[in-house]
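Readers of this paper often ask what the protein records in our data store actually look like. The remainder of this section carries one protein's record, kept here as part of the documentation.

:::
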Amino acid sequence: MEYYNSDHLQILPASFRVIGVGTGIEEVINKINSLGLDGVSAEIAGPPYECIPNNEDKLAIIIFTDLEETANRIANTFHDAGVLTLGFSEDADPSCYDSIMLCESRNEYPEIIKALLQPIVTSCMISFDFNDLSTIFRDSDYFTVKSTSGNDIKEAAKKLGSAFNELDFSCVDYLSIHLYYNPNRSTPLAMSEMASIQQLISELPETVNVIWSVNSDENLNGDEIKLSAILAEKEVWRCQGIKDG
């Protein structure tokens, strides 16, 4: 199936699938569908739990609260087919996924998934595409997402910097930062304002590879600026092995 971006009449990559397994996941799936992201489908897997990758599948996100063996088996099917596969559960088997979301509240899943996919499926000034997302996750073990907002880029960047201070970057390989602004804001966005983000990036360890994008979002209030960061990291033992080697 192909999806079109009405702003640019371009074909967007398809498909990005979110698959829920087990009980208590319906509300999350419904919320993801309500986001209306182009090229993104969300479904609940039911008996006999046979979810088969399609030729056009590029990304599969598996979320579950129980039935972990079933969920991991479904994930492994996509992973073995070369589909970028992400897991949302503390019971996700790392061997079945490219990367696993570090434990967060289930209520936060829709916003986290939106943070992953919104830069890919919406128009932007500085682009971030599926290949960038794949580069971040293909050789990682775990990932996390941090989001902040402010009245301007400087304020939002300062808040994101505070969030970064609470994280250990020693095992972080890739970081992507996504800026969102309302295109109808009273003051046009100026590239000179990006200095705050560049300053934030300059304070990170040189071993961290950074990708960033600038995106429009008409749902933001007035001059509000939102920043989302995706951090992909390796297991601590793998980092230690790299240092010793």
